[in-house]
Amino acid sequence: MKPSSQATGTEAEPDALEDRLRRFATIWSRAIFPVTATSMTRPEFEQHLLPVARDLCRALRERPFDTQAAQLIGRALVDAHCTNPDALSRTLGVVDSYLVLYCGDSEQAAEENRARCARLQHAVAAGFAHALRERTLAEQEAIARSSLLARNDALDAMHATEVRFRAVFDGAAIGIGIADLDGNLLEVNDTLMQMFGGLEHHVRGRKVTEWVHPEDRPQVWELYGELVRGEREHYRTEKPFYRNDGTVLWTNLTVSLLRDAEGAPQYQLVLLEDTTERRLLNLRLRYEATHDALTGLPNRSLFFERLDKAVSAGNGTRFGLCYLDLDGFKAINDSLGHATGDRLLVEVADRLQSCATAPGEMVARLGGDEFVALTTGPDTEREVDELASRILGALATPVAIDGREFTVRGSIGIVEGPAGERTSAEVLRSADITMYRAKSAGGNRSELADPEADARAITRHGLTNALPAALERGEFFIEYQPLVHLGDGSVHGAEALVRWCHPQHGVLGPDRFIPLAERTGLIVPLGRWVLQEAVRQARYWSRRHTDGGPLRINVNLSPAQLQHPGLVADTVDVLERSGLEPGALCLEVTESALIGADEDLLKPLRQLAEMGVDIALDDFGTGYSNLANLRRLPVSVLKLDRSFTQGMQQHPADPVDLKIVEGIVSLAHSLELAVTVEGVETGAQAEQLREIGCDTAQGWYYARPGAPDRIHALVLSDAV
What we know:
Blueprint: H1 2-32, H2 42-61, H3 68-79, H4 85-103, H5 110-148, H6 151-171, E1 175-180, E2 185-188, H7 190-195, H8 220-228, E3 234-242, E4 248-259, E5 265-274, H9 276-290, H10 300-311, E6 318-327, H11 329-336, H12 338-355, E7 361-367, E8 370-377, H13 380-396, E9 399-401, E10 404-406, E11 409-418, H14 424-440, E12 445-448, H15 451-473, E13 476-485, E14 491-502, E15 506-508, H16 510-520, H17 523-544, E16 552-557, H18 559-562, H19 567-578, E17 585-590, H20 591-594, H21 599-611, E18 614-620, E19 637-640, H22 655-670, E20 674-677, H23 683-692, E21 696-697, H24 708-719
Parallel strand pairs: 11-12, 14-16, 16-17, 17-18, 18-19, 19-20, 20-21
Antiparallel strand pairs: 1-2, 1-5, 3-4, 4-5, 6-8, 6-11, 7-8, 9-10, 13-14, 13-21, 14-15
Helix pairs in contact: 1-2, 1-4, 2-3, 2-5, 3-5, 4-5, 11-12, 12-13, 15-16, 17-19
């Protein structure tokens, strides 16, 4: 079996080589046929070149290597009437690019194949040059002999020339016509007649000047006038013509001036290449490149072309842009599949298209479920609002797909203004930001762009991008606000409050960057850093102040940290590394984060509480939680929100606020919970809270957040 298999492989290799050889001959014939004076068709010419290509391939692979065959190939080109210098240059280009690729010997090194190919090129060029020189000398000799021949010989030569001309004229693949200087067509070939429908009387006898088309370039007839006046030898242009059946023929038109023996203009020679199919293909490719394949709407590329023109028009013109994003579309894709989602997008696109039919309006799909509608004109302030209303109205009717009805909602960001003030990228960014503002407001609505809101959104985006590097560069620091015991006014501890020293925006409070850190997931490493720094500082205080026990440190936990699986392990690790007692640490969790919390969420807090770490319920009273839930939460401290004590800042205090705070304090103490009050700003407020029974307080009345040394100074003043 093995020898048979090898024999089959040996037989298959010549077949494969022959196939590659034919492909090489095809490439070669296509390259030089246009510059070859031959009466053969291109397929016939390819068959003529095939044995020549076979000789060239054999020469490349021959051992020992000999370039003699390549010189004969150069001669063969001249013999085949490939005497145009372009034929040689194109032949050498084909040999250089494809001979080794299709005919190279796999047993030879690539460098050897390329070296042989280069030498073969030189030999082909040498053979071509020698043959062309011999042919030229022979022709010159023939001309010299012909000048000595009698009149009959001269007439025979003229007849032969006419025959050759007629062969070229009649067999040319392009349309050829000869006209006088008045534009009358005197003679046309069959190809030109076929271009115009094949009827001779529709072509012959007509004037060139009758073939005017509305899409003619303005300079076409100016060039024609210059040519017939003898001011120009030729011109070339793209020109459409009407056929007899009303269809349009697109051509590459070349017109040359023929002069008589004295040099005076006599005839004009017209060459027409049919480019209709090529043009239709280009138009199709252009359409596919500028339109969305799913919906047929203009795509992002075409939309930006239109938007660029609209925003740069100037001259007092205005534009309006609606940026639409479907609300909840991802849920449809995830639950019912992309096929259903695509059908929904097609229906939405059809409805949007029906909303933008006025002059100057267009709708495009940017991608996914994002669409844009553009309007231009002098009154876009009114028109863009109406366009947005039409879009929301069109989406209001449910979409039926496979027996199901889908309610489609969308959020629209509107940007309107004069042209020439912003770039298209700035306009689209503003529309995108505004769209998300409409979505945040509940969706199914439109919002008008607000430069201040845009600036805030851009700043938020910049801060979000800068957060990771800011943590690595050490741009965060902690300020501490004292926690004061209301019974004796002593400093009980401090709350750690993180700040960001931004290089451009200065010191930023947590309200500016904590929500961004939570959305990006950076809150976990940032929170661990805050815990490490705060615990380290608390341990430092405990070493310096041995009287009265260690100062407590309160550290905030975000909901994202609460759900992180490493919370307990990280906290234990930080405490063990610092040497701080667990009882000196209090972790603050907002009430809203624990509303409806299941046992899995409460488990890490229970573990920390069992270790001795205090858990404080921060912002108590703002989450509208059931007070009965306090019994199951592992908390030891309630931090009462400042909104409940603002009425106590003046004397007499608001009686309603007093009753509420008294009730909360009483409930907390009955559950053995300590009560801390935030936002204490006046002495009267502090006195009222002390009388009610609150345990600790913090606020500007005692001290603003500051450096850790201020806590040290306050503790020292208490000791004195």
